[in-house]
Amino acid sequence: MFSKIPKDRRVYLFDVVVELLSFNSLNSWKTQGPCQGHGYASWGTCDAVLPHIVWLKGLSDKYKIKPENLEKWAELVFGAGTYLWERQQPALAKEFFQYGLHGGFEIPDHIFAQAHRLMGHVYLDMAQPHAALDAYKKALTLRESINGVDSTAVADVCDSVACSYTEMGDTGNAFKYLQRATDIHNSNDPNKMTRTLAIEAMTYFVLGSRRNHLPPSSNAGNFKARRNKRSRIHPTPSIVAISCFCHESIGCKGRRKKARN
């Protein structure tokens, strides 16, 4: 049926559908914060919109359609990729991210930056840490240019770079980027570096120094007591437990400092 539509009308109608789907909005995919992606609350919307995006993608490929509003179209494509990644379908997610990243889209760098970072997440889930590192470094370069080298947005990507190095077994470079992320968070808001601490703990595990190395902000005695309590249920030290404890420890220090001031 679409083939019967005059060529000069195809782009217009394509854009109308993109606009309609955008009102259901999958643009939360690029939200920066402790909870990456859409979140469970938006999964119903994502699930309903996804088939339409797949259909549009097929039309775009078949009829060589380049929509007028590339930014909104890119948002839908990357939003679909993020949703598929969240639903643990990295191979399908990869198709959407590659389509958006290599389709000649002329869109703002902040969208490309987040797309490259999420592409890195997808590669890690597919056990391709070298490809993930390449994607993360592209995101890092863009974030440094957009947000500044000492921004928390850059710290978030440094975490991801460190994670890919850890997956590769290169703990030296992992700690280098973790330290950079830590320094940035400490100069902004140390309460927001739980993910940094979690990746740091994971890197120490890979290094093989679980018992003797903890993030410097932790209190060894208190952590040991908590670990012993948890070990009755979980004999293996929990990365989440370490990061949560460190987060609480930093938070308490911050509150005490504010009280003194």
UniProtKB/TrEMBL annotation:
Alphabetical keyword list: TPR repeat
Domain of life, source organism: Eukaryota
InterPro entries: TPR-like_helical_dom_sf, TPR_rpt
Keyword Transferase: no
Sequence ranges of the TPR repeats: 113-146
This protein's record includes keyword Cell inner membrane: no
Protein's name in the database: Uncharacterized protein
Organism: Clonostachys chloroleuca
